[in-house]
Write a structure and sequence with these properties.
The protein is mainly alpha-helical. It has 9 helices and no strands.
């Protein structure tokens, strides 16, 4: 009787061992393996996307704040043309690394940040031309266009931005600042005519043409210097721009 009772007590344990060792719950079964791995596959599909979006947002915000900080420091502690060379580079770097949408967002975020720190007027002056110039340079550098085209387009944007600033500040101050520029160019033209021995009064149309030419030349020189800074800086950051012309490589031994 005792032997029969011990056998009855052992039967459930034997049945459980048989069930646990059966093939339908075996870890080697393909169906079981696929079903057990489904949550991890889903998590692996979602996590890289979320991580990429986070990296894009962080880089965009960081470079937008860097552009705003450079503008702010140059406004209160001007160091000549040194910091001015870096105005469009953070936005262009966002374009090179994350595309056009991130570059536009970086320029707008920098403008909003400057509007909080310095007021809307200074933020608009930053966006036009340096924010748009950064987007244009980033587009040209991503497509590896030659320096002549990118410098020319950037100079046009810079010239338009200068006239925009003249128009905006003339409205705010109630004075025509273009008249002040024309007066300075007239004095320079009179001095040139005197040195060249030309006994004539410079025409007003000639003075305006000279003013436009000087503004364009100034922007060409500025964009060329920006390209040189970007060539050295962005190569070190792993986002190289188009190679300079041969005479620039020879001159810089680059």
């Amino acid at each position: 009787m005792s032997n029969q009772e011990s056998e009855d007590r052992n039967e459930p344990s034997i049945f459980l061992d048989t069930v646990n060792n059966s093939n339908w719950v075996d870890g080697d079964d393909p169906k079981f393996a696929v079903s057990s791995q489904l949550p991890s596959v889903t998590s692996r599909k979602k996590s890289p996307v979320n991580k990429t979006k986070t990296v894009v947002m962080v880089e965009t915000a960081f470079l937008a704040s860097a552009a705003s900080l450079i503008w702010l420091i140059n406004y209160y502690f001007p160091l000549g043309p040194l910091l001015k060379l870096f105005f469009p580079i953070p936005t262009a770097l966002v374009y090179l690394r994350r595309g056009s949408r991130a570059a536009w967002m970086s320029a707008l975020v920098a403008m909003l940040l400057l509007s909080v720190l310095m007021g809307p007027t200074r933020s608009i002056v930053f966006l036009m031309p340096y924010g748009l110039m950064g987007i244009q340079l980033g587009a040209c550098w991503q497509r590896k266009t030659n320096w002549l085209l990118s410098i020319t387009l950037g100079s046009l944007i810079g010239s338009i931005g200068l006239f925009f600033r003249f128009w905006l500040f003339s409205i705010l101050l109630g004075e025509d600042l273009w008249v002040y520029v024309i007066t300075q160019i007239t004095q320079l033209t009179d001095w040139l005519f005197l040195k060249l021995g030309i006994l004539a009064q410079p025409d007003f149309f000639l003075i305006q043409v000279l003013a436009l030419i000087m503004i364009l030349i100034n922007n060409l020189i500025y964009l060329f210097a920006v390209h040189l800074v970007a060539l050295i800086l962005l190569d070190r950051l792993g986002n190289p721009i188009a190679r300079p012309p041969q005479w620039v490589r020879t001159l810089l031994d680059y």
